[in-house]
Amino acid sequence: MRPAIAALLLLLSGPALAVLPDEMLADPALEARARNLSKELRCVVCQNQSIDDSDAPLARDLRIVVREQLRMGRTDAQTLDYVSARYGDFVLLKPPFKPATWALWAGPFLLLGAGAAGLAFWRRRPAAGAGAPAGDAPLTPAEAASLADLSAPDLTPHSLTGPPQPR
Amino acid sequence: MKRLLFLLPVLAFAGLIAVFGVGLTHDPKLLPSQLIDRPLPEFALPGIEAVPGGGPGFASAAIRGEPALLNVFASWCAACPQEHPVLTQIAAEGVPVYGLAWKDKPSDSRGWLERWGNPYTAVAADEAGRTAIDLGVTGVPETFIVDKRGRVRYKQIGPISPQVWEATIKPLMAQLSAEA
């Protein structure tokens, strides 16, 4: 019974927060904005985590920077700009849409379009041939004779296997 | 024509593999600096003397007039002792090397320099790490090459090896010295 309760409690526990209480802002609305922005900023030390997730000291510093900017009355966009001006677009987990990233954003749609065009092309191609498909044309007399010959039982003496031999 | 069309997916796949192959040669840990060809962000930091804020330290404006190195180090940095002899040699060649002690207690930085020797023209303590954030520092050691006009021209991520110094930074310093 005890292990079951322990397992249940483990299931109920939430993930540990990297954000420490001393970093948090008193204003819940501002703090919520800070949390959202932190989730969009990549930790440059452990690169597949956001600064909201990361325990790295530099991530903590950046969380504090984000909160400072917000307290100074900066907008979300200005705060993200402040960080990306120092660390580059790489820190933005959502890359901005600009000439250098056009291929990145448009790529999937271009590929989808190319695939759809290819599919349409391949499906239309047989219809583009002259007249009905060859399979529906009536057989020529020569073809009919050849078919009859092939489907007739092979009883000719020169057959390579020969007639069945009594054992 | 039909055969060429058949080759199209194969070519597309080969292209994709080529892109991935090139991608494998890039180290994602090496973030290009946003400061290249831009002035060093302004800072004025205390030194690492015993009295907090009482040491000489230096300000960003001090790095001007001749090409210099701004080296970010820390007493807790594992690769810094490896780089240290190279910095000592660079300083001995007459290049000003400024030290920025990142997220380090001044007493620890001082102890570290007493142990390994001090190649720095001046050392500033960035205990809070805010100047390092303005510089876009992601780890230690990192070194900024600053030209005569106080603009960042190059950033070395990781220790300066003797090879990096001879092949990359030394020629760059000569070029920067020749600039007006």
Task: Describe the overall structure.
The complex is a heterodimer of chains A (167) and B (180). Chain A has 167 residues and is mainly alpha-helical. Helices cover 53% and strands 0% of the residues of chain A. Chain A is built from six helices and no strands. Chain A has helices spanning 2-12, 28-39, 57-71, 76-87, 102-128, 141-151. By secondary structure, chain B is α/β, with parallel strands linked by helices. Chain B contains five helices and seven strands, in the order H-E-E-E-H-E-H-E-H-E-E-H. Chain B has helices at residues 2-24, 80-92, 106-116, 130-135, 162-178, and strands spanning 44-45, 58-59, 68-73, 97-102, 122-126, 142-146, 152-157. In chain B, the strands form two sheets. In chain B, strands 5-4-3-6-7 form a five-stranded mixed beta sheet. In chain B, strands 1-2 form a two-stranded antiparallel ribbon. Chain B is elongated, with a radius of gyration of 21 Å. Chain B starts with a helix and ends with a helix. Chain A binds chain B through residues 44-45, 47, 57-58, 61-62, 65, 84-88, 90, and chain B through 28-29, 31-32, 34, 103, 128-130, 133-136, 138-139.
Overview in brief:
By secondary structure, chain A is mostly helical. Helix content of chain A is 53%, strand content 0%.
Strand content of chain A: under 5%
Kindly report the spatial arrangement of strands forming the biggest sheet of chain B. Answer: 5-4-3-6-7
**Biggest sheet of chain B, in brief?**
5 strands, mixed
Number of helices of chain A: 6
Q: Identify low-pLDDT runs of chain A.
A: none
SSE layout and pairing:
The complex is a heterodimer of chains A (167) and B (180).
Chain A: H1 2-12, H2 28-39, H3 57-71, H4 76-87, H5 102-128, H6 141-151
Chain B: H1 2-24, E1 44-45, E2 58-59, E3 68-73, H2 80-92, E4 97-102, H3 106-116, E5 122-126, H4 130-135, E6 142-146, E7 152-157, H5 162-178
Parallel strand pairs in B: 3-4, 4-5
Antiparallel strand pairs in B: 1-2, 3-6, 6-7
